[in-house]
Structures are given as structure tokens and as C-alpha cells.
Amino acid sequence: MRYRLTFVAGLVLGYVLGTRAGRERYEQLKKSARQVAQNPAVRNTAESAAQQGRQFAGKAYHAVSAKVGERMPDSVTDRVRTLRARNTDGAGADDWGTSNT
Questions:
Q1: Residue partners of 50: CB distance under 8 A and separation at least 6
Q2: What is the CA radius of gyration of the chain?
Q3: For the chain: N or C, fewer Cβ within 10 A?
Q4: Maximum Cα–Cα distance for the chain, whole Å?
């Protein structure tokens, strides 16, 4: 899915940069992209995907840390603890400004 979105974004960018339709067509595309981005269904899907990504990352960390054991660098364990504490303290947004709902 990520590769499809990247491909479509590349097509759109290539079209916008290569078009000879001028500023009017660019503004029309920009308005359409903004409408799609502000669509509640799109926003909910993006937030759900982000939440699932965080869950999978947590599972992967547990799986790796179980196999690696005490050989995990302190910087990694400290960062994970910091992120967990921030998420359990009720912080509403991550580093990118998306909510953790």
C-alpha cells in the first residue's frame, strides 16, 4: 500500500511539475489534494495506520529484545522508555503532530 501511495504521489508531482496548463490547473490540483487530506475518512484511515504501525513496532521491539536480551544498547532502551512514558502520560500528539487515538 505504501508503495502505491508513493507511486501515485510521484505521478501527481510529475504531472504538476510537467504540466503546461499553468497556474490555474496547479491551484485546482492543490485544492483537490487539500480536500482529500481534510476528508474525515482519509484522516481516520491515516491515524489508524499510524496506530497499527506503533503497535507493530512495539511487538517487533519485544520480539527482538527477547532474542537480544541484555545486549540492547542503552540508548535504545532509554528511548523506548521515554516514548512509552510519553504515550502513557496522555500526550495527545506524536513527533509529527498526529493524535494517538
A1: 94, 98
A2: 20
A3: N
A4: 60
Q: Which residues contact 94 (CB under 8 A, 6 or more apart)?
A: 50, 100
Chain centroid to CA 47: 8
The 8-class DSSP code of residue 72 comes to S
Which three cell numbers, joined as nine digits, stand for 83?
A: 516514548
Contact between residue 47 and residue 98 where contact means Cβ atoms under 8 Å apart:
yes
**Could you read off the pLDDT of 22-71 as tens digits, one per residue?**
777 778 888 998 998 889 998 899 899 999 998 998 888 788 777 877 77
The answer to whether the beta carbons of residues 12 and 29 sit under 8 Å apart is yes
Q: How many C-alpha atoms does 45 have within 13 Å on its Cβ side?
A: 9
Q: Which pLDDT tens digit goes with each residue over 77-86? A: 788 788 878 7
pTM of the model: 0.43
